[in-house]
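Continuing from the previous page...

OK, I double-checked the sequence for Alpha/beta hydrolase against my notes and this is the correct one:
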Amino acid sequence: MKESDRKFVQAAGHETAYFECGAGAPLLLLHGSGPGVSGWTNWGGVIDQLAENFHVIVPDIAGFGFTEFKDDTHYDIKFWVNHLVQFMDAIGLDKASLVGNSFGGAVGIGLALFNPERLDKLVLLGTPAGTFVQTKGLAGAWLYEPSVDNMRSLMELFPYDKSLITDELVQSRYEASARAGAQDALRKLIPQPNTEGETLVKGFPEKAVKNIQAPTLVLHGREDNVVPVQCGRVLSENIPNSDLYVFGQCGHWVQTEQKQKFLSILNSFIGGGQA
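Thanks. Re-ran it with the corrected sequence; updated structure tokens here:
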């Protein structure tokens, strides 16, 4: 699949960009929230492999990537979940398993809690949960001003292996980050860093995720400098039917940094029992 294969559909009043390929059990892939993020930048490296076994659908969440951002829309987790549900309706998808990266995992948790009948299995990668001190990566995402150099500096905070930050990735994410409204949408999601002292970030609280009934797999990089690994432990300790896999020498992009392990574990979990 190529980036030019992107399609569009109307959902929750937003022209919504997405990719779709493969056959089999439906599998939604949701991206994170960093500047210049999109379904393609987060998942383009694994779409074709996953499409060998699954019907893969990769939308851009409202306000991000190539999906519309609207100044007069109040964006919050309930809106983003509603947008996802209406997107599923628009493409004729009744129920699916969902893999969410970071912010995309938070939207997946929202779906599990607010519309559990639409969710089969849930996979959470580097997903925030509980309350934690804002990391350098999240603060940098809020403070980011679009430029190629600023994008490179920010991206270097995400993976353990900095060689993954290619010129092509930097340019692609910079161009997406420079779209009108892109940084505004991001700043609605991440708290503004305090000028003095620590800034606290709040994900779904422990008492909320205890209500998730879907079988859940939690994946987290041990060296994640964006969403700390403690969040993965909070999720696995509170979601009743869940397992946790921590990847060593891995930052915030499990699906890229530990690609083969990720694909093997995901195929086992979605295709059969829990890994």
